[in-house]
Design a protein that fits this description.
Helix content: 25-40%
CATH architecture of the largest domain: 3-Layer(aba) Sandwich
Largest sheet: 6 strands, mixed
Strand order of the largest sheet: 6-7-8-3-9-10
Number of helices: 10
Number of domains: 2
Structural class: alpha/beta
Strand content: 25-35%
Order of helices and strands: EEEHEEHEHHHHEHEHEEHH
Shape: globular
Number of strands: 10
CATH superfamily of the largest domain: P-loop containing nucleotide triphosphate hydrolases
CATH class of the largest domain: Alpha Beta
Radius of gyration: 18 Å
CATH topology of the largest domain: Rossmann fold
Length: 236
């Protein structure tokens, strides 16, 4: 579905991504793990057109989308739920969701365009007229993911969906991520919670200072001693 080859990106003179190679197949959940500053969000930025690649290629469904404008990438079927949620606090839940489907044509005679996300996130349906800024952190994260789904993407990019959430909400968010994948959406998951990311995903890539240093099946990486030491603490 998506293939990144020899991708390089810079912030002024800082070499943020260094010959990065990454591949995502249809129907997978892929984790991209690494410490702060490793280049995870930059990778998502390059895919979505928010960060310009200096060299290399990003191919989505046989189309080279390297440095495409962001709005065009959304229309091709790629959507991002950003780090920090970035909901519009003064708008209601439903108004935030409506913004997520600006690129989508909705037939006035069709069923409720919000039905799918309200099915996944019933808590949002209960609060559809509530201002997003008054929601809890977990509810705002649900809203950010739901808004990204409103464009009906085939590839969903999730940037730190568990950041700042209580453990019980982290479990809920990851259950929802699995359910979204079951519904036919391929997912690239950027996470500092390496344990949860590896448990949820099919395959994973480990990013350090802009380079992929390790990749493979998530189950195998969970048992890799170097991964345990660097990212999983004392988990045995």
């Amino acid at each position: 579905m998506l293939k990144i080859t020899n991708l390089n990106a810079f912030y002024d003179n800082v070499h943020a991504l260094k010959n990065l190679d990454l591949e995502i197949d249809n129907g997978e959940i892929i984790s991209l793990i690494g410490s702060n500053g490793a280049g995870k969000t930059t990778t998502l930025g390059c895919i979505t057109g928010l960060v310009r690649a200096r060299s290399g290629s990003i191919v989505y469904k046989n189309t080279d989308i390297t440095n495409y404008p962001a709005h065009k990438i959304v229309s091709l079927g790629i959507s991002l739920s950003p780090e920090g949620r970035e909901v519009f606090p003064g708008l209601t839940v439903e108004e935030n969701l409506r913004l997520g489907m600006y690129s989508r044509r909705v037939d006035k005679k069709s069923n409720d365009p919000y039905g799918r996300v309200y099915g996944l996130f019933p808590r949002l349906k209960e609060r559809y007229q509530q201002a997003a800024g008054t929601l809890s952190g977990g509810e705002q994260q649900m809203l950010a993911i739901a808004r990204a789904l409103m464009s009906e993407p085939k590839l969903l990019l999730l940037d730190e969906p568990s950041l700042g959430l209580a453990p019980n909400l982290v479990l809920l968010i990851f259950e929802l991520i699995r359910e979204i994948c079951k519904q036919g959406v391929t997912i690239l998951l950027v996470e500092q919670n390496a344990n949860m990311a590896l448990l949820a995903s099919n395959r994973a890539y480990v990013l350090e200072t802009g380079r992929i240093v390790l990749s493979g099946e998530s189950k195998k990486l969970l048992n890799d001693e170097s991964i345990k030491k660097a990212y999983l603490g004392n988990i045995s």
